[in-house]
Records
---
Amino acid sequence: MIEVKNLVRTFNSGDRTIKPVNDVSFALEQGTLASIVGKSGSGKSTLLSLLGALDKPTSGDVVVNGVSLASMPDAKLTEYRRRDIGFVFQQFNLIPNLSAVDNVMLPLEFAGVRKAARLQRARELLEQVQLDPSKHERRINRLSGGEQQRVAIARALANEPKLILADEPTGNLDEQTGDHIIELLSSLSRDHNTTILVVTHDRALANKTDRRFRLQQGKLTEEPVRGRAAVAASA
Amino acid sequence: MSVLARSVGNAFRNKVRTAAVVAVLAVAIGLALAMLVANQAVGAKVQELNASVGTVLTVNPAGGQGFEGGGEPLTADQAAAAAAVPNVSAVVGTSSLRLRNATEAAAQAAAGTQAGPGGQPGQGGGPGGQATATLTTSLTAAVDAGTLGNRNQQANGATGSSGSTGSTQPVRSLPITATGIGAQVDTTGKALNITGGSGLGDYSAASTNALLGTTLAQKNNLTVGSTFTINDQTYTVSGLFDAGTAFGNNAVYVTLPTAQALAGTPNELSSMIVTVNSMDNVASTKTALQTALGTDKADVTQGQNLQTAVSSLDSVKNISFIAFIAALGTAGLIILLIMVMLVRERRREIGVLKAIGAPNRTIGLQFVLEALVLAALGSAVGAAIASFASGGIASALISSNTTSAAATTGRGPGGAGGFPGGQGGPFGGASQLLNSVTASASPGVIAGGIAAVFGVAIIGALVPALLTARIRPIEVLRGE
Ligand SMILES: Nc1ncnc2c1ncn2[C@@H]1O[C@H](COP(=O)(O)OP(=O)(O)OP(=O)(O)O)[C@@H](O)[C@H]1O
Ligand SMILES: [Mg+2]
């Protein structure tokens, strides 16, 4: 369960203030797969960084399972990111001089998982995102954009987080691989009760989500989900 | 992939830069280690000097020294007077005897008688020195007379007996010096290095025990327990000593009363070895001692102008220590600046590590370890540089320093050349001491130096490592 309460984030750029996130409130039940759409520059990544405790809001609060992020000290926030959050960055943000498998093992190392177990879990995850085993040991800067994206997704899943925040997770993937990733994410929300919030321009992905939000001029509005609504109506 | 493995990997990420950094670090570290080695070598020498002859004053009869000169002998009363001078911790009397091989002395005497009347070389002490007696012994000197020995004896013979001059002399061996000592020290006040057997026990009582120099014992096929004679009286070798020099080992030590009895001068002393309680008091005690004994009665000297030697060594020691600290500081500064640069460069990466939940201390540790990898590489190359350079650096430091010291005393360094160990130039002894400072890179000192380098590296890396704590995870969303 994640509750967002009157979240505001402003930036000062030159003489004027921009408000990419302006009084946003919503709540997601545990296990929900939700999507956010919006124009480029509308503030989607900014909102996600606030939910992932990467950034601090100008005002407002995020409450995760009854615990407010605003009141947490930095050390606790680090632990929150390590344990409870899986973040897929729009720019992947992998460590370029490490191999794919080493990148996936990083969050496991920080969580104190033993080395043998780390390696095994990392390999499993890379297989789940369909990265060719021959590329597991390859350095990140020798992988294609799509391959890097899948390594980034595998890394986000490493510590079995309760909340996955994914910024354009299928942006660099072909349709078939993209579909597989979508399937992987929805199965996680279904079977592992993981809450997943994806930012996407991908219609196919947006259509598969339980809830859909649109961010426009700093305001978040929920769009009715046709598929689910139809299911609900027919039920 | 552990923190350490990542640090090592990161250290080699940019190979060209790593090589450059290691090269610069190696120069600084190498210099630091070389300075440390020089400092240790000189320090050890200073300590050695202070511990042994550094605090020793020698009192000789006024106008005489050893077997040269003249004047009145020293007495037991004067020894008591010397002991009463403040800061004097010990007074050891010595009584010197000159021993000649009995058969050779007889042959020589015969030759002298043949040559003409009045010639009685070898008897009556020959040289008109202080209270020394020449006695016969069964021992043969371990040192061949050689050119120097013959020349010396001829000169001495001339003062002793005019009769023998001009006559063909039989091949002579050198006399052996027997010294009666009041404690287990040699004539310069240094503790005797007993290499076999035991000492003489009670040095204030007459006995028939004697200590022989190693080469003298060897020459005469004597070991501990063997016997030999002085003036037809039998003595037992109770121990062997090693004085470290061929001259020093061609000697016999007996107890003071024994020597006094042999010489027939029970109350007289050839010299006194006065030990001062600390290096700082040597100068004042020397003056006090001179006053107490009277300038007309005794000459008080300080062994080999040690003060000059020690003070110039001390300044070398200080210079090298300052240079060590400065080079160490430079190494630390290099590491600090490199790490600050690296942290700035990897802001975004640090942000990523934080964003995926790396604790601050893990990231800080990673950077400290990375600095240590650089320091380790720099130390390895630096130690190699130091082991080649330290000898040269130490001797360069010492020679430049002693030249200036010699200039201040108003004597050219030329005076140092001729008379090593002599009383002549104030630098005769000093330069010898300085030359014996060998700066060898001992593993212990190098290890200590490298430990200091690592300490400095940790301090240098700590500041940048702490800076990483201030980098916020949101950096990941910003461009480079
Ligand atoms: N640190 C910052 N300082 C100033 N302005 C910022 C900062 N970060 C983001 N912005 C601005 O906030 C707005 C929202 O940025 P954000 O990255 O959230 O957009 P987005 O919706 O993710 O766009 P895209 O779909 O292109 O990724 C943009 O106009 C951006 O210029
Ligand atoms: Mg974005």
Note: Chain B touches chain A through 25 residues (CB under 8 Å).
---
Amino acid sequence: MDPLISARGLTKRFGDLVAVDGIDFDVAKGEAFGFLGPNGAGKTSTMRMIGSTSPVTAGTLRVLGLDPAVDGPRIRARVGVVPQLDTLDMELSVRENLVIYGRYFDLTYAEAGRRADELLAFVQLTERARDQVEPLSGGMKRRLTIARALISEPDLLLLDEPTTGLDPQARHLLWDRLYRLKQRGVTLVLTTHYMDEAEQLCDRLVVMDKARIVAQGSPRELIERYSTREVVELRFPPDAAESMDGRLNGLADRVEVLPDRVLLYTANGDAASAALHESGIRPESTLVRRSTLEDVFLRLTGRSLIE
Amino acid sequence: MIASLPFGRRASRLIERNLLVYRRGWIIIFSGFFEPFFYLLGIGFGIGSLVGNVSLGAGHSVPYAVFVAPALMAGTAMNGALYDSTFNLFFKLRYAKTYDAVLATPLGVADVALGEVTWALMRGSLYSLGFLVVMAALGLVISPWALLALPAATLIGFSSAAVGTVATTFMRKWQDFDLVIVVTLPLLLFSATFFPISVYPAPLQAFVQLTPLYHGVDLIRGLTTGNLGPGLLVDVGYLVLLGAFGLAITSRRLQHLLLK
Ligand SMILES: Nc1ncnc2c1ncn2[C@@H]1O[C@H](COP(=O)(O)OP(=O)(O)O)[C@@H](O)[C@H]1O
Ligand SMILES: [Mg+2]
């Protein structure tokens, strides 16, 4: 089957600045595909090109088999967009936001109204239907933006940092809604700089850094390829960590010294911490955990995802 | 680059959106009705009582109020169209970011341009209609051709809204709107509005005839006084071209500002 989105050498420049530097990727129908990367990596620029609200500088991009440069309106008719910053209409009520958005997609008022009510229930905002948008909490606004993106029953949903800035409870509610959409067969493309979000939601993802793709695969594949099964996190008193480096080397496959902690990459975390103990090293704290995409990112770029 | 549907087929959606917004605030629209009446009473009748009759040329002369009222109607169409195409548009463009959401749908910049210009001219036309009715009631309409004064006012609204929209896309801060007043006030005063163009020396007459509101005033005055001539077709052509030009530039400006 043809991919829903296909990019080859996709490039975006703003003057001299290269925001997206010749990236290749394919998104298949029905999958949840993620762009994981720190601020400034080029995620939003990529999403806006896919949503055909930003012209492609170079390379080829096909969305739903169409070229954004010629078929922008036809692409946008079938894509739902949740932009990084909410663009809700502050001059309209919660429900009106959905209804008028439905009108932008040529729905009748009756149909737009019916879907608006359904979607308000889906994102748990029914009681706020008649309220103005401004006083809603960040999580509510985000849910409303997602509902708005769904009013046209899109084949493809683009979510740019859907949960950034939300508290944990609001994030989990959103994840749950996105998971349900995925089960219904909606193709999700999302960006995030939260590795837990990427792990929770994405079937497949690309890791972006400095306008390029540095790795791609499923979260599991990426962890297997670029990290070890487990990680031991050690904290030392200030200045002690540097002096540890040499002594720690034999204890794990790989040692990473960060400003605030030391990471030991190993298949067996408990064995490594036991060996550590035996060799007489006494960190302030020791934590054994599974590898995450954060470790993958660190390995690939030498930096943390969130600086 | 990112092609929109030709001719802004979905422009009416923007008008629906604005109607939804104004449904709650219609009183704001209503307030705009009154300003031109004050001018009509104060200048048309007040000063008019000192002035007596004004010649329209060709041996045709009318009371001052009959002369001034159509010019005030033209000014009303222009001002009414500028409310929404300047301040209100600026707010939506720079602060509310209304169009960022709109452009993620099948609508394109041509829809936004045409929709907002049409909305703005509707407001100008509404005020003009109110003014025309009052003019007729006060006996200031002396020709049945005045029926065409309403579409003429719509045309003035169209060109004003289109030019206002273009100007707004270049504004960076609220203070820049002082420029709107710097431009519109002389237009309102000197476009053969309160006195005939024959008052000016010839070179100045030629200059005034290049400015837009002069053609609006000339057109509406011709219709409400029944003083017809081929010059009215020039007025219509001028206003149509100006509006179409403004509309085309607006689309390009919105593309530049919003679809980076
Ligand atoms: N409209 C724009 N004009 C100029 N530079 C931009 C614009 N949008 C993004 N950039 C730049 O492009 C780079 C990538 O930005 P972005 O795509 O927003 O990254 P991300 O979403 O991963 O944080 C950044 O350096 C950013 O400053
Ligand atoms: Mg971004």
Note: The longest helix of chain A spans residues 168-183.
---
Amino acid sequence: MKRQRGLLVLAVVLLLLPLVLPNAYYYDIAIRMAINAVVVLGLNLLIGFAGQISLGHAGFFGIGAYATAILTTQFGWHPLAAMAAGACGTAMLAALVAKPIFRLRGHYLAMATLGLGIIIAIVLKNEAAYTGGPDGMAVPALGLFGFELNGEKQWYWVFAANLLFSVWACTNLMDSPFGRALRALHGSEVASQVVGVDVARYKMAIFVFSAFFASIMGSLTAHYIGFVTPNVADFFHSIELVTMVVVGGMASVFGSVVGAVLLTALPQALATFEGWETVAFGSILMLFMIFLPRGLVPTLAAKFGRGD
Amino acid sequence: MALLEVRELSKAFGGVMAVQEVSFEVEPGIVYSVIGPNGAGKTTLFNLITGIYTPSSGEIRLDGQPIAGQAPHRLAQKGMARTFQNLQICMNMTARENVMVGAHLGLDRNLLKGMLRWPALRRADMALREKAAELMAYVGLEAFVDSRADAMPYGALKRLEVARALAAQPRILFLDEPAAGLNPKETSEIDVLVKKIADGGVTVVLVEHDMKMVMNISDRILVLDYGKKLTEGTAREVRRNPDVIAAYLGKAA
Ligand SMILES: Nc1ncnc2c1ncn2[C@@H]1O[C@H](COP(=O)(O)OP(=O)(O)O)[C@@H](O)[C@H]1O
Ligand SMILES: [Mg+2]
């Protein structure tokens, strides 16, 4: 019942939000919150639930965004085909990078994903013939079934529905045998092994799934904004995503949403301190690690006597 | 045929021979105990058999099939389950979920079905929730069904390990000092529990320091000392063995 209540609250908020959003600028912020929330949700499955790390998630997001941009404009692909190709390519790349690491034990995952993210960002910047280089490139609108998505108001509903579905799906997943095995290997790797969990395979599966998730969101975001630059894949974006996971709360589905909402709003609030966002995010990440390591939602939930 | 056969099994950690050319057989349906002073190699022996460590040399057979060096999750598929002397509980989960994880192999673990709340998978999971509560009652944890694992006392966590292992419906169960650190009352409850499990048809391999309990419930006993087999036999034989009295029982008594 608890999970249904949370989902219901989210649905109501998403439904009523347009009533108080005064103009396109605020719609845009709400949409960016929803986009970040979904990516962070996928990342939290990996970091919070399974206890693994990715410092290159923006790279996966970037691959999705650019797969969409390049395949639709330069090769004339259907947007859905481009999105699927980007997501599958991302999943394969993630599997390729992670396989040897998970067989060895996870310590090197942080370094490997960090490196991978940086390499992806560099490739996107340098392959100017395809990607437009540092200036980026335009992306056509997303047309489906003869209907073209236009403007913030239409996109709002796409991302709101997407977020609601993702929260529902992730909550389900973590309460299923697959999700329990993931949480168990986080809790005790050896205990989960002796009851039959193939630990390396599960880590790999959630890493690939999480990357797949990010890639799809990258594709959708590219269509929404109508333009992509290599910044979407850079290290700072990866750190933003990790910070959102930590602030909202590890292993908390609703924490992911809260973290994404708060930290998407932050740069808007800090607009007058342009250029200091990196410092702000770094400090927030550090302060939370030290003073509130469980993140906002789990800490509050514990305080008010109920689990998440 | 013996359910478990161990032949000339050895494990060296650097220069230390933690287990040295140990051989024994466990017939199905019995309680088989492994005793010996601290550092004798009992836990290492369990770790070798359940796949946590790879043997330096020697053979392990289950149902006559060689299993030495196989990964723990593969051995779980073959019907092995175990508990840990130093607790291995998932503190990030509830007590009941810890037990449910024990049933991992019996479930549909599909990611997509889990995500979409697939009805058949959901139904199996609801049934498992009940089963887990029953198992917890079976080991005497009915009061803790909906507790968080990290809020439970040590003695309860020892039992939770047993409940999780039982959830896997093993054929052979390895219990590493299930009564260590418990008071006499709790110890005698564990004693009863182990008997109950064995009577249920599960072959039990037990490491335990409590001599009264071991002598009481074991069909056969293996005595280790400095990684080597000192002797092996029925409780009566072992108790009479002068080497055992000198090396172990004499000191303990
Ligand atoms: N992972 C390990 N690395 C190095 N030495 C170990 C390891 N595990 C056990 N040992 C050593 O092996 C010997 C047997 O230990 P153990 O099997 O835990 O004994 P017991 O369970 O009988 O008390 C001890 O000397 C211990 O220090
Ligand atoms: Mg031991």
Note: Chain B has a mean pLDDT of 94.
---
Amino acid sequence: MPRSQLVMLASFFALALVFPLVAPYEALASEILIFALFAMSYDLVLGYGGMLSFGHAAFFGIGAYSTGIILIRVVPSVPVALLGAVCVSSLAAAFVGYASIRRHGIYFTMVTLAFAQMFYFIAFKWTSLTGGDDGLQGVPRPNIGPTDIHPEINLYYFILALVIVSMFIIVRVVHSPLGTALQALRENRNRAMSVGYNVDRFRLVAFVISGCFAGLAGGLYALLLNMVPLGSLHWTTSGEVVVMNIIGGMATLFGPVIGAVSIILLRDIISNYTDAWSLFMGLIFMMAVFGFRDGIVGFFRNKIIPRANKILGQAFPRKH
Amino acid sequence: MTVQAAEIPVLETKAVTKHFGALTAVNGVSLSVSHGIQSIIGPNGAGKTTFFNLLAGFLVPDKGSIFYRGKEITGLAPYEISQMGVGRSFQITSIFPNLSVFENIRVACQSRSKSRYNFFMSCEKLPGVQIAARKILSQMGLEDWADSPAKNLPYGLQRCLDIGISLATDPQILLLDEPTSGMSVEDSAVILKLIAEIAKLMPVVLIEHNIDMVLTISDRIAVLYQGLLLAEGTPAEIQGNQEVQKAYLGGY
Ligand SMILES: Nc1ncnc2c1ncn2[C@@H]1O[C@H](COP(=O)(O)OP(=O)(O)OP(=O)(O)O)[C@@H](O)[C@H]1O
Ligand SMILES: [Mg+2]
């Protein structure tokens, strides 16, 4: 792993440790962490795999519902519920991925969206299992071993621990043989095929890994809210995670985290004044697409840092 | 070189045909390659690149079959044919533009690793891959560029990288589609020397427009014309062939 990324991760974790003390309220800090994980998992698909999935809410939502349903109906154990959520959402990702991965460009996007809408519709109609329009109410927060996660601050650190482990794994994935091959086939599909990569298989594995962590993020979301809103499966949730990636900076891993922090904070602030969040979301998206295409991280890396280096270099020339 | 009758060719086509709508781009071409440099020449649109795409699995022939070391590969996917040992480069430079030059080659070497689907280990720990990639990098004279993004390479070196990527897959036979196209005379000479070196290790199928070059470097030459294999033979035979003279060489 490059040193710059290690430094970034370390500073992120240092910030994350004290974050709930400075955040407006603790649950908001937890929500930011959850969406940071969701956005980072999506970076595997969009940034590294070059696949514009518009159905990632499906895996987030399925993770959330699975966690809720297991906790309410099967066994009141958080580890079991989260593990179940990860398995179910990975399976769903394998299913959706298998059906969509052979398509490319806009067709891939449409197929993922269609599947996500299907899951949304099922959750909407299957009221006895999911609570339908009202969402799945009454998701408990049973103790994890001796630890009581009812206090928001305890839940925050539990979430932080899982998010750190997940991010560590995702960073490993990016630098693994599979991750580097994935970037090669994003760069040039024909070339990747002609050197012997089974392109679709790599895309599928990346899609499933991504769905797995999106599901974990969803499971944590259910714990945080004590319920699962139907909106977790809504296409706007898919849209949000796309925007987080684009404004933060795709294929940087750290960018989507920044994107998630900015979007969730901004939504929290704006919602104090108006209900027109989607309008702002649209504006932010347009800014991101037209203004700085490489996202916040790319903006700093390509514009600010070189310029700062230049200014510093002129101010303090190196002695030869 | 003399070809023994009993030898199984490395790559062989039997009457392959490919239509694009009403156009027959490749028309019943039978060709076999065993060693040395087999060039394919022909005017623009003769079907040379299409023929390569058939060999490499990027296109599936409408008729006919293709064999690799006697094993039928017709209809196999490009990655399967590559894994068997057929390497190719592209007429229009085909590299991984935003990856570093080293990574371009490394990722191609990595495709031969059993651990290529591993998603938890560091790719730098793959046994042999780093070393193999460095070797190719220096063979192609690209060491100084190792860390630059491939898109920053000058054009001629991008063509070299394209060949390097193909070599990195440790092929048994190499298909090169106009490797010197758009290159200066000096750069072309470097590439040609390199191709001659490669051809000592594995058969090379070479598409090339420069006739002087083809006549000097090739062991055998095939002439395609409007999808048909017009002639096939040694450079001397091709030069002496009346039909080829009429259709293509025009006075050489
Ligand atoms: N995918 C395709 N769809 C339709 N027509 C095609 C396709 N690929 C090639 N052709 C046509 O098939 C014919 C042969 O093309 P090909 O690229 O094989 O020629 P070539 O011998 O490589 O020519 P050049 O020397 O210009 O590279 C041309 O008329 C071309 O327009
Ligand atoms: Mg051609």
Note: The first helix of chain B runs from residue 48 to 55.
